[in-house]
Amino acid sequence: MRAAAVCMSLICLLTLQFVLVHGGTISSDPDDFRRMTSVHRKKCIAESKTTLEAIEGTEYGEFPEDENLKCYFKCVLEKFNMIDKNGKIRYNILKQVIPNVYKEIGNEMVDSCKDVDAEDKCEKTFMFMKCMYNVNPIAFIAP
């Protein structure tokens, strides 16, 4: 775990869903996040045929032009209803669930990446995640 890592907006969203579904409490610990989202992570790894190493590499700025990795991000956003059937990312929902302690940095990341666009859902979500990393590499944690 990187000591400087903070909760990015997607993590906050996933945490909120956990709270609503499982009655848990919101945690900003990246390891807690990974444990509670492991089922969806495993499903999306299997569906997209990417690797855990590729996903974890994005936390260090490694975003290879890999269709499997791109579709992994789409899968994660779909599992948590953060992308609609037309491929539009629901930025407003992402911003609403950011805990107050991370609101400024999370809003900055989301707002800076709202203009990312591509017709292909996999490409769009990949570009969004890459943008989020570029805006704040320290705060980015791969879903």
UniProtKB/TrEMBL annotation:
Q: Which GO terms describe its cellular component?
A: extracellular region
Q: Does the keyword Transmembrane apply?
A: no
Q: Superkingdom, according to UniProt?
A: Eukaryota
Leader sequence range is: 1-23
The UniProt keyword set, sorted, is: Secreted, Signal
Name the SMART domains on file: PhBP
GO annotation (BP), single: sensory perception of smell
Where does this polypeptide localize?
Secreted
The GO molecular function terms of this record are:
odorant binding
To which protein family does this belong?
Answer: Belongs to the PBP/GOBP family.
Q: What is this protein called?
A: General odorant-binding protein 83a-like isoform X2
Gene designation: LOC100744949
